Every structure is written in C-alpha cells, then in structure tokens.
Fold each of these.
Amino acid sequence: MKSILILLVWLLLMLDPAAGRGQQLRRAQTYFLLIDTSASMSEVPKRPKVPEDWKVSKMAEVKRQLANFCASLPTEANVRVFVFDQTIREGPQCEVLDDVQREKLNAYFDRLKAVGAQTFAWRSLDYVLEKARLAVAAGPPGSVVEVLLFTDGEDNDPSRPDLSAILAKYSDELKDRIEASY
C-alpha cells in the first residue's frame, strides 16, 4: 500500500520530530520537509505555550531539530526541502543521504532566515501534499512519503485556505495518518 504520512510540526516542537516514532520513521524512504521562513519564526515564543527556559527564536529551534532529524535518517533516505513564507520555494533534494549531503543540508538549514512578510502555511502544505501524492504514485508498491511541516501555526493568507478542505483533497492517501506534534 502506498501512502503519505504527514506530520504537522507546529507551535514548535518541544520534542524532536523523530522522538517516539521509531518504527514509522524507519518505514518511510522519502521525507518532504516544509519549513516556515516568515518573520514570526524569528520571535522567541511566549509563555504559557513554552517552558520558561526557552530563550531562542522559533527558527533556531527548527534548525536544531532539522539537524537532529537528518542525523537520524538512514543513508538510503530521499530528502526534499521546501521553504515558504508568502511564496513556496524548493530547496535541496538528496537522493542518497551520505555525509556530504548531510553537510550540504545542514549548511542550507543554517543559512535560513525568518524574514518573510506573510505566512501562507496551508497553501504551501497543499502544494507539498500534491508533490507527495505524485511521488507516492510514481514510487514502487509500499512507498511512503513522510511530510513534516515546521511552522508556528500562523497562517495569514488573505485567501483564507481551509486546512480541513486541503486535507480532504488527499484523504484517500492520508487516511488516518495525520499526526500533530507540538
């Protein structure tokens, strides 16, 4: 069975995205990382949503988690990176995650800046889910694409996309495979 596993990783990530998902993490061969680079990601989160000792920006925490996540992936993992604010841009793609590719990914993550004027999170998620659907359809039987969304959950798209409607478009592929990590 082919499927897409989406992880909504928003309100940033008190735990590493890989934590507690050991078997699911190893099952996927393709990972789509969708990263929010809007200006709100440069802010330090405020209580009560985060522990008192959180002193870094949301983007700094995302970068830490991305480095840890990529370090945990097997060499045969395929990784595609997408970044968004009011537009979505494709970042690096790695067919094989060897040490050189891991270094390139980490260097790319280190250069990310949270400067975008607006956040079109749900429109960007729709774009990446369509890419994931196509990747699953083109893959061998049993293909799994895992989509991880790194955002603070703000969406100020003037067209007001409905997250439920976006997820409904992919309901056959997603089934009961949506997880949210906070």
Amino acid sequence: MLGLGSGLASGVYTREPILLGTYTSDFASGTDSWGGFGINVGTQTLTANQSVGGVDGALKITYDADEDVTFGLELATPWTEDFEVGDSWEATFKFYSADEDPEDGGNISLSFQAGIAYSATRRLTGYVLDGAWKTVTGDVTVISAGSDSDKMRFYFASQANAAGVGDSWYLKDVIIKHYR
C-alpha cells in the first residue's frame, strides 16, 4: 500500500476574496465626478476643497430645498466590474455636518451603499452627523444586483432626518474596495 490518503486532510476549500478595484477620494482636487441622485425639488451643490472642523480638503454638499424622496450623492464605480450577488465591499469615510436646520433636532442620518442592494442589513446607516467629524468603517456582502449595480451612493433614507434647506454636510477620505 502506498499510503495514499493517510496524511490527507479533507474539508472545504475557502478562497480568499479577490480585490477587483479600489476608489480613493481626492476632494482637495475636485468632486471626483460625484453627483446628485433623486434631486427633484431643488438643487444640490457640491464644492470641493473645503475646510471645516479643523480638516482641509473636504467635499461640501448643500441643499436649497427639502426633497421629498430618497436622495443624495452617487458615483459610478471607477472599475470595470459591476457589483454582483456575493461580491463584497469595504468602506471607510469621514463626514461632518454643520447642520444649520434646527427642525430635525440637530441630527442628519446618512446611509452608504455600493452595488445597490436595498436592505437595511446591507448598508452602512444610521450614523448621526452632530457637528463633529465621524469616521465610519464597515463591510457588506451584496445580496441583490440590478440596474444600479455599478453605483456607490451616500443617501438619506429617512425624510425625518434628511438634509434640507440650508443644511450642509462634508465628506472626506472615502475609500471603497470591491471584492469577489
């Protein structure tokens, strides 16, 4: 007997995820082609290279109306592979709100999603902007993909805590990694 199998282990092969692409913001140089989505009442204005709260090189986002639908910022992914079911993404970003609208109690609730999978458990959400810079880090597995599978979005899912007339918030150091 050759002893085949006597030293072999059996089990499930687990493959490490493959990094397909990374997006790193550079708001000191421009808006990185981020734009509005769901803006149907007023105007969303993006201003690059802003300083606030002791931090330079931020993207400032302001509104001149209260929107009545889900709205926010959107960017087409800078890599060639769209998000697919089973893919995952990691996100790290900083954001800040000057929140000039006392009607919402001084809080704005922001969500982030990539490879748009509309599920409360498949996005980073509920982070409150309260006049101080916040750093957010998380990772999510894409559970559905469709017409927006090539998008990354920051948005307000709740009208009760959305930015509105006179509100501004800031975004900086956004890093998104796409894995398969």
Amino acid sequence: MSTKPILVAALCASLLVASCGKAPPSPQPETAEARAPAKETPPAPSATTFDASRMTGHVTQSACFVTAFNGDPAPDLFHAAAGDRVGVSGWTADSDFNVPEQVSLILRRDPATAYEFRATLGPDAARAAEVLGKPQLANAGYTSEIALTGVQPGTYEIWISQLTGGTTKYCVVDKQRLLVGP
C-alpha cells in the first residue's frame, strides 16, 4: 500500500491546524496604484482619408492576405456597421517573399473613396512560412484594429501598403471585401 495519499492528507491536516486560531492578516494601506482606475483599451485608429491616386504605377502582385476579422476566419464578404471596431489580421510579403518594413491597411471603394489604417507587423505567420517553404515569412503577419468611424457605407476592396527600402507598393487582397453598412 502506498503511503503517498496518507502523507498528502497529513500535510493538508497540519496546514489546517496550523492556521486555526490565527487572526486574518491586517489590511494593507491603499496605494495610489490600487486607487487608480483600470486603464481603458485605447481607441482603435479612426479612418484617415487616403488619396488612392498615389497607388497608380505602384501596384504589385505581392502576397497579401486577410486571414481573420475579429479573430474569426475571414469570409469573402465581411459585414460591419459604420463606427464599428474591426480587428483585421493576415500576412503579407513583397513579390520576392521579403517581409516589408512597415504596412498599413487601405479600404478602397473607388478611386475617390479610400481610407488608410495603421497595422502592426510581426505577429506569427508560421503556417504561411511552412506551406510556402519560406522561413523568412515567419514574421510576415500583421494586425490592425480599426474604427470605421467616418467611413462611408459601401463595399470596399482591401489593399495592403508595403513599405520596403523607402519604396511603397500596394497589393490588393484578392478574395476578401469589407461591406460597411449604415
């Protein structure tokens, strides 16, 4: 017969007996940090109007993908209301499968109606790297938390702006579109 269960029971019993009769610990004085209100989530970047004519002559056939909206697999058409916050993630690389230095997300309804949002490079894109056999793509992921405040209703193409070596190229996401409703 094993003595392990008996030892565990004896240890628990001794801890219970040792704590009996002792006064509860006195409350600690409240510090400024304890009184400070919880930090709110920073607002998502609002839409910045984008001059889509800047894209002329700078469109590339790079690898640009949206893999998720709000953490769920990206459908071909994602519906959101004007003013909603939307999390967008995916991965991108230039035509030589190099990870850009900086990226942003562009929603383009037509040449006169486009918006740009900051994106953060670097989230894991290990699956893309594995499937394509390109280990340099492991950090090609991006995320962007956007606020559709001020974005006019309509169906938008999603473009990725890729800055590499001082040159910006624009890559259209072939499959997904964003429908912004009233």
Amino acid sequence: MTGPGSGLRRMRFDEFLDNNGIPMQAVDQFDEYAVDVALPPGWEPFQSPPGARVCIWRADPNGARFCANVVLTMTQVEAVLDPAEVFPMLCQWQLLMVPGTQETSRELAHANEGPGLIGTLALHIPSDFGLLDSESVTRILTAQRRTLIAQLTLTALPESPVDRNNIGLAVTRDALRGTTNA
C-alpha cells in the first residue's frame, strides 16, 4: 500500500481489495492467535452465518423493538497490509453501508495485548426501529504474509440499558496453535 496522504483513506476496503485483486475470506479462527470476546452474563448465541458469531441480549427491555446484539467477524486477507491504512478504509465501508449513518467517534492505537493496532468506531445508524448506536472494536495485525482482522460490533437502541462497558475483544498469541498454513 502507499503511505499516508495517498488518497486511499476515502476508499472502502472492499473496493481496495477488488481494485488490487487481493483475496479476502471469512474465517472462524486465526492460526497462532486466540480471539476472545468478553460479554456480561445474559448474552446468548444466536443463528450465525459462516465466519461470524452473533450473540443477543434477550433481557433488553427494548427487545420487542430491537434487541441489543454483538457480532464478531474474523477476516483473513491474503496480503500484508498496513493496519493504519486498512482501518480508515474499514470505517469508510461501515459508514456507507446504511445511508444517513453518522460517525460519532473514531480512534486508532497500538494494541496493548500483542502485535497490531486496535481501532474503535462509534456510529449512529438510522433504521426502521429508530436510531441505533453501533460501537465497533477492530483488531488488525499481520501474520504469515496475511492481514488478520477481527471486529466486534455492538448494536443497540440508544436507550437500551445494555452493559456497554463490559463487552470487549482480545486477540492474543496462542501457543497451542501451530503454523499449519502452507
């Protein structure tokens, strides 16, 4: 990838991959890394598509209208990319998924528990259920000539009493997993 100021920051990540012929695939785990999601009591697994884990908080008093949920996605990109360049493109992708979405905050920093960067993105998303709050934590790191992206997104109505402070994502080296990829 090119350096800062190259104009790529306004491109969506999917467009960048398509334009450069770089394959990306959803995965259920990363070689050499463990991905852990911290959730307060009361969260339940929900029907999840391949490459994603969905949990819902059935105790949400707003559940009849919209039930608070978290979605973990894990992606493996078949190229080594600069995490600091990837994160803005991922943000742009999320911003453009639903017309009228507004960004409320964005931060990017070095991860505390290992290699790579950790980014946060908060959005207000218009929907048929009313305005939704979306808070994503994204961990981006490179390993074995690949870029690994784990993203945990909490979506809830603004008035939902969901415990937002005790939901988290950690990606750490896993000594039990070998380097099985060729």
